[in-house]
Amino acid sequence: MFTEYRPPRSVRSRLSRRFVSALDALATPHGIDRYLELIDPAWSVREVRAIVTEVRRQTAGSVTMTLAANGNWTGFQAGQYTRLSVEIDAVRHTRCYSIATSAHRAASFELTVKVEAGGLVSPYLYAAAHRGMLVGLTPAQGEFILPASRPDRVVLISGGSGITPVLSMLRTLCDEAHRGPVAFVHYSFHEADMPYRAELARLAEEHPNVRVLRGFTEEPGRGELDSLFCDAHLRAADPAWRGAETYVCGPAPLMHAVRARFDREGLLERLHSEAFTLTLPTSEPAPGSRGTVRFERSGAEIEADGRSLLELAEAVGLHPTHGCRMGICHTCTRRMARGTVRDLRTGISRTAVDTDLQLCVHVPDGDVSLDL
Amino acid sequence: MTSSRLRPHLPKIRARETEPEPVRRPALRHHLTPEQVESFGAELDAIRMRVLAELGAEDVDYIRRIIRWQRGLEAAGRGMLQVALLPPLWLGGVTALSLSKILDNMEIGHNLMHGQYDWTGDPTLASGTFEWDNVCPGDQWRHSHNFMHHTHTNILGQDRDLGYGLLRISSDQEWSLKDLGNPVYAFLLAALFQWGVMAHDLEIERIQSGERRWGELKPLVRVMGRKAGRQVLKDYVLFPMLSGPSLLANLAANATANLARNLWSFTIIFCGHFPDGVEEFAREETIGETRGEWYLRQLLGSANIRGGPLFHILSGNLSHQIEHHLFPDLPAHRYAQISLEVRAICERYGLPYNSAGLGRQFGSVIRKIFRLALPVR
Predict the structure, then answer these.
(1) Where in the sequence is the domain holding A336, given as residue range(s)?
(2) How many Cβ pairs closer than 8 A exist between chain A and B?
(3) What is the CATH number of the domain that holds A36?
(4) Residue A279: inside a domain, yes or no?
(5) ipTM of model over 0.85
(6) Cα–Cα distance measured from residue B18 to residue B13, given in angstroms and rounded to the nearest whole number
(7) Residue A337 falls within a domain, yes or no?
(8) pTM confidence score
(9) Which of A51, A192, B152, B253 could form a disulfide with B158 if both were Cys (CB 3.0 to 4.6 A apart)?
């Protein structure tokens, strides 16, 4: 194990772009990265890779990893996520995780991963994350961010593992010595499930404009809020919430409740949300999914059975690249030559030719022909 | 991906024979009943499913080890050739670089591009994007080899690898005067094999026959030009220039390494389908083929080369051509183990299993190339 951390060297910073393209010409057709990574796995002139520098298990079901990325990491905005890749039993898996750190401390940043029951990557990271571990990343992405000109009043609402992007926003605002009121509302089942408890208490103490309200739905009386999200919670967070910009990330019922409240007020443009913990009914038969899916390049065919196009492709032995499996990252986007599909997120069917589709959130609703 | 890739056009079948093709379906089945053919296929399917379920760290470790060896040999070869003026370093450099190109094309490139490691999700092992150290662009190879050749294996008029549109390699191909040059064409193809493989996808013979127009080749030629240009720049301009006073020796060394790889891959590939005993098929007997019949055609249309472990690695395990054609997307390093079972199954069904040493297989290919230069059947 490492006794002292040595940051991954930023190879790109030392090599001018012209030098890199000259090296690539010598290293054609593989490119210079395929040679550099044999010397040190974190070395790359193009890809973002990071080394785990610290591992904390703040709660019984979560692991917080501090990462130091190589020179290709270009930082992030508060609220964004990265797609993290790890190899488990020789197979590479990629998942999206929001960055929890202040955007002003971008060189070394944290991801907090909650263990999903029946999941694969999160239990693996919980068990196996260690100092010195190498992971693959993508540049930070996502539209769930604080606008460049910071809103005066901010309300941050989260549930469960949805805490990370809004914590990043809170930490960023604190680092900027933001003066306007910031309310941080978090829900979890038990107090012990909630990461960052001590830090949130400290932030509330140090910053008079920050108010932290916690609701533990299985332990009434322990937090500042009882029961599920309701109007009273919103008023307690910020009596003038109608004039604030509100950011919400959490499980679907919480997101729906908040959204319905803002919808009634006609204030949806002040509500920003990230459906990270949304669970799509991809593994349960979607009613009315029908037709035959033909994978043109491989010649395989399969009958629709309610599973997503991605799952159907995997069922016939194909391995389309994919990321989030929930319609966020567009990694699994492939061309449909023709066919009728239904978008699982909207329930809307459409018939199209030569269209790019996200395989993970579409089910066949008629015959489908895919470039796979 | 162009839209034409979505549904690759099948070549139109032109019977070169004057008399109508005899229906040879019973021949394809040999002495087996249709039920036996299907149970033969089911046994092979069972092997496939079992191996797929076993795939894991062992396979990934293996291919990454080969890749490290290839990149190491390449770096060592290029390094030695910086002072290619010194004969021992010239020889060492050529050897290392030849081995690197052979490993890259055969055990790594050919096998990765078949999708043998797609299940790992590792983008550096992905069939869809891998490029090899060869002038033929990966995308075109995936079409002409993975689809055209592996689907239509040894079907006359459909499998364009039968003679590469250039050689008379089957007595069922009608003789013409130009076939007198058969041995010369074969020698040129062997020496320039990577260029032949690249030009393969142009299907020049279909232009001569009027089925395809020159204009259709433009996009293909553009992609080929880009890939070949980069390869030529690296081997014949940049590395020679970097070696300063060794410029000419370095250039000659790189050309020699390319030649060595060409001759080697030609040898292995021609031994896979053209030795004596390998069967060809008429399109008529393969229409409406079942899964079992497809397996049977792959078995009868391929031949193995016996050899040691190092020989198998350097041949990209195409020395197990039969297993490769039965299971093109299983990791090739497993073919040796699978071949024991396949052979036992063939014995039980009384089916031929064409396997011999390199000398015998290649000798029979050479004899065939010379014999078929003459108007014999």
Answers:
(1) 292-370
(2) 72
(3) 2.40.30.10
(4) no
(5) yes
(6) 14
(7) yes
(8) 0.84
(9) B152
